[in-house]
Every structure is written in C-alpha cells, then in structure tokens.
UniProtKB/TrEMBL annotation, chain A:
<protein>
    <recommendedName>
        <fullName>DUF4363 family protein</fullName>
    </recommendedName>
</protein>
<keyword id="KW-0472">Membrane</keyword>
<keyword id="KW-0812">Transmembrane</keyword>
<keyword id="KW-1133">Transmembrane helix</keyword>
<feature type="transmembrane region" description="Helical">
    <location>
        <begin position="12"/>
        <end position="34"/>
    </location>
</feature>
Length: 140, 250
C-alpha cells in the first residue's frame, strides 16, 4: 500500500516537473522565434539627429538606406531623410560634375533641389554638407 | 417453511405466525443474512471501484507523462530549429509577394538606384527567396558599393571618425572593391543565368563605382583598370598611395 502511494506521488512530481520543463522550452522557442522577426532596421528621427549633430552625414545616409521607414513617416523623420538624401545626391552631383558627365550631374542637382525643399527646420545641414563636399552653393 | 411452534405454513415475508403469533425465526435469520450479503456486496463493490479507479488513474497519469515527454521533445526540437522555422515562414510570405518584390526590384534596377536596391533586398530579406535569385548578384554588388561609399566618406572626413584609423578604413575599402570585382567576373555559365537587363545594370554599377573611386579616392583611371587582377591588399596600397599623392598635390 505504501509503495502504491509512493508511485502515485512520484508520478505527480514527474508530471509537474515535465510541465515546468515544457513551459521553459516553450518560452525559449517563442523567444527565439520572435527574435527572428524582430525589426532591427527602424531608425527614429532622434537617431538621425545624433548624426546631424556630429555632422556625420555620410553615415547618416548609409543608415537611411539600411533602415526600414514607416509608410507615413512623421514630419521630423521626413526632414532627416531629406537631409540624408541631399547628402547622397550632392555627393553624386559632385562626382559627375568632376568627370564632366553633365546630364547625370544635372539630374542629381534637380534631386538636390527637391531635397532642399523638404529639409524644413534642418536647412542648416545643407550648408554643412556643401562645405564638406566642397560644392559651390552659388551654383544652386 | 413451517412455524417452529404450531407447524402452520409461513412465507419468508411473514415476521410472525398468523395462527400462534410466535416470531418467524427463518425470516429473522433471512433478514440478518440479507443484511450481511448487502454489506459484503457493497464492500466488494467499493474495493473493485477503488482498485480499478487506481489503475485507471495510473494509466491516465502514465499517458500524461508520455504525452508531456513527447511534447517536450518536439518543443526542444522546434527551439533548436527556431531560425529555420522562421526562415521557412518568411519564405512562404515572400512567395506570396514575389511579384510585388520583383516589380519593385525591376524599378530600382531600371532607375539605377543601386543603394536603394541593396537596401530593399537586405531589409526585406529577399535573399531567402529562390524566386528572386536572379537579383542576388546585383543586390550583393550594390551592398558592397554602399559600404565602399560609407568608408570612403569616413576616410575623407577622418577627423569625425577618430575611432577608425585610415589604414583600417582603406583595408575595408580594398576588401569590398575586391569583392565587387570578383562579382563582375562573369564566366559563360553565369552569363547564361542573368538576363541582358541585369548584365547591363551590373555594367552600369561597375562604371559608377569606378567613377566614384576615381573622384573620391583619387585613383587614376589606368590604375582602376588593373583592379580586376589585383588582390585586396594591393588595391588597398593603390588607394593609400593615390590619397597620399592627392594630398601632396593639394
């Protein structure tokens, strides 16, 4: 009788232990699965402002390309993206101007004009970028 | 049965003799026996139920334990393959949107927006899709180009990046340029895999990259033409020498 009671108790303990193990395993699986779907690509306006403050415009441009943007970005994020795009277009404008490919240079110049209109309160960055890339701001 | 006193006939239900009024001893004994049998019956029934109940309970617990062990095994197996499972789910989702991605990639390729193409391919994890394999080369080359662009601007603005030495940056640039030139090499087999549209885009990317290297890293065009045959280390040396020459000239 004693043995029978012990077997019953042992079975109950085994069930509880297995339930705990299953719960832990499930949590590990969910954690790993969710991690695979985590979006590490998003950058907020604050992330971009950090690059603008440090005048790291080229890095900001790369971050823009490596980031996933929301469908309708808020106004401050739009301005940051415009600054990053301005840097990229300005660097291409300079590149094609220097090698005399005027058609391509013109294309990037018009894109720069579009970006300049979109930078809003970050317009001070335009001067910094022109200075860094040694672009004559009188041309525009 | 008969009455022990007067001998008249009695039934088992008669408690007393209807003739002499004496107690029916058989009926009393019978009731005692019935009471005993009933108790015995219920006791046996209780024992059987208890025994079979314990057996059923053990079988149920054993089944639960076996089920839990199997479940734990499968969950452990799933945890070990969580990334493979998530890739499989992503692949299934990509398959649904293949045409949308294909159109977007075609547009980016037609616009020669190489950075946009690299970024779109990476962010949407299109490398998981077998249906979009034809864009792999142009997307990878664009991705290397993106890093060359970044590191080049870091070299040119080294005062803003004090944690990176110029030697390290030119080493990275050399590595990525080498990877690009390896990707530009198309043997007959690979040429068959890519459409003329992709080949033309790759050629334009090469032209753009060479212009970029010439303008920003100051490498003369005749030196760039030799990059295809050079190792990553030698490309790094050419870049460092060109930057030094440009600085001395300036």
């Amino acid at each position: 009788m004693m043995l029978k009671t012990n077997i019953d108790k042992l079975m109950n303990i085994v069930i509880v232990c297995l339930c705990v193990v299953m719960l832990i395993c499930s949590l590990i699986f969910i954690n790993m699965y969710m991690e695979a779907f985590t979006d590490y690509h998003y950058r907020s306006a604050d992330d971009y402002i950090w690059y603008i403050n440090d005048k790291k415009y080229s890095e900001m441009t790369i971050q823009m390309y490596l980031s996933k943007h929301v469908a309708n970005p808020p106004e401050d994020l739009k301005e940051c993206i415009a600054v990053a795009e301005y840097y990229k277009n300005a660097s291409y404008y300079k590149m094609y101007s220097e090698v005399g490919e005027n058609d391509k240079a013109k294309k990037y110049l018009s894109l720069m004009d579009e970006n300049r209109k979109a930078v809003g309160s970050l317009s001070f960055a335009i001067e910094d970028i022109n200075e860094e890339l040694e672009i004559d701001s009188g041309k525009k | 049965m008969k009455c022990v006193k007067c001998g008249s006939n009695l039934t088992i239900d008669d408690k007393f003799c209807s003739y002499c009024g004496s107690a029916n001893v058989y009926a009393v004994q019978h009731r005692k026996d019935m009471q005993h049998f009933r108790e015995d019956y219920y006791q046996t029934k209780r024992n059987v139920i208890e025994r079979s109940g314990r057996k059923v309970s053990r079988i149920a617990k054993g089944t639960i334990i076996a089920g839990l062990v199997v479940l734990c095994f499968f969950i452990l197996l799933a945890s070990a393959n969580a990334y493979r499972i998530s890739d499989w789910v992503k692949r299934a989702e990509l398959k649904k949107d293949t045409n949308i991605h294909k159109n977007n990639l075609d547009k980016l390729e037609a616009d020669r927006d190489f950075f946009g193409l690299a970024s779109y391919y990476q962010i949407n994890e299109l490398y998981l899709s077998d249906d979009l394999r034809e864009y792999e080369t142009i997307a990878n080359l664009s991705y290397y180009y993106l890093f060359i662009y970044d590191y080049t601007h870091q070299v040119l603005n080294s005062e803003k990046y004090p944690y990176m030495s110029t030697e390290d940056l030119t080493e990275y640039i050399g590595d990525y340029i080498k990877m690009c030139y390896d990707g530009f090499e198309f043997d007959e087999y690979r040429q068959e895999q890519y459409s003329e549209t992709h080949m033309a885009a790759i050629q334009d990317l090469r032209d753009e990259l060479e212009t970029f290297i010439h303008v920003y890293l100051k490498v003369p065009k005749e030196d760039i033409e030799k990059f295809q045959q050079l190792s990553a280390g030698k490309i790094q040396l050419v870049i460092e020498r060109s930057l030094d020459d440009a600085e001395n000239e300036y």
